[in-house]
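Please, structure for the following, as tokens.
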Amino acid sequence: MIVRLHQTASTMKDAAALAHEGKPHGTAVIADIQTAGIGRHGHAWHSDDLGGLYISIILRLEIAPTLTLALGLAVQRALNDLAQVSTDLRWPNDVMLNERKVAGILVQAAEGALIAGIGLNVNQSAFPPDLAEIATSLKIETGSEHPKDALADRIIAESLRYVALTKQEILSRFERNSTWPKGKAVEVDGHIRGTTAGLDENGFLLVRTPEKLETIIAGGVRTL
């Protein structure tokens, strides 16, 4: 079941309401505009432009650290195939294009299910000054507009396929499809600095600092 909306406050809240009604695994809500979109740690997500695409999917699965990684792989596959681009995955939840963020992923528990929220910059021509250096869109990078319905359908299909993979399959694919897990000089939340040294068995990021090997369970990871 897919619910397509022009505008909503939050597709994640809409999906949570559907989960409360008992809607099954794979039910999705899609919108062109969100008026109260959120990102990780409660940050606002710029989502009041018709160029965006906002998807929330009900997942009746157990929470696992690798779930966000699987969703990132799904979005990457859909974008690379349909938009003919080459995206990167920044651990744990960002899809990057030419070193700027083109999509973000957030997973929250709600109503006995998990809600996977995916925000994608598709046909925006520009961003506010505070985002212009860190965000991009498919249109900015390719010079042409892209059909959002086709992208949404493919992202939902790929998401359901990737979240069904085993933990080891997800970890292996993420390390193959991302430049971030190994050998990248990074800073985590402004206070841990080192070089990425792979993922552990749970999908957490390993960062080798001058003092020790740190396990990053969550946090904002940026290049130095």
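The longest helix spans residues 66-83. Residues 182-223 form a domain with the SH3 type barrels. fold (CATH 2.30.30.100).
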